[in-house]
Amino acid sequence: MNPPRQSLKVVAGVLTNSSGEVLINERTQPARFAGQWEFPGGKIEPGETLHGALARELREELAIEILESNPLISITHDYAHGRVQLNVRTVSRYRGIPT
């Protein structure tokens, strides 16, 4: 009998600046999928809304406060290690400078 596969819900944000540039990051070692590109975000904790999880992740990762985010796309993908539900949101307003 096979062990149950991991199921993970994550949220990512697409941030643009006033010049229309998009913030994206290359994953580094030793992260899984190192060398690939990603939008900022992370796991959704139990009880969090998508906006709330994204706000927490971007505060932790980029030191910004998001004021408004909207759904862009939600997709589910099966990897060898488990299923990932990716919820992508546009971040239309935020306070601070991403660092």
Question: What do these coordinates show?
Answer:
This protein is mainly beta and 99 residues long. 13% of the residues lie in helices and 46% in strands. It is built from one helix and six strands, in the order E-E-E-E-H-E-E. The chain has one helix spanning 50-62; strands at residues 6-15, 25-26, 37-38, 41-43, 65-79, 82-95. The strands form two sheets. A four-stranded mixed beta sheet has the order 4-1-6-5, with helices on one face. Strands 2-3 form a two-stranded antiparallel ribbon. Strand 5 (65-79) and strand 6 form a beta hairpin. It is globular, with a radius of gyration of 14 Å. The mean pLDDT is 92.
Count, helices: 1
Low-pLDDT stretches are none
Share of residues in strands:
over 45%
Q: Which value, in Å, is the CA radius of gyration?
A: 14 Å
Chain-wise SSE layout:
Blueprint: E1 6-15, E2 25-26, E3 37-38, E4 41-43, H1 50-62, E5 65-79, E6 82-95
Parallel strand pairs: 1-6
Antiparallel strand pairs: 1-4, 2-3, 5-6
Please provide a brief summary of the model:
By secondary structure, this protein is mainly beta. It has one helix at 50-62; strands at residues 6-15, 25-26, 37-38, 41-43, 65-79, 82-95. The longest helix has 13 residues, at 50-62.
Q: Which key phrases capture this entry?
A:
99 residues, 1 helix, globular, 6 strands, 4-stranded mixed beta sheet, two-stranded antiparallel ribbon
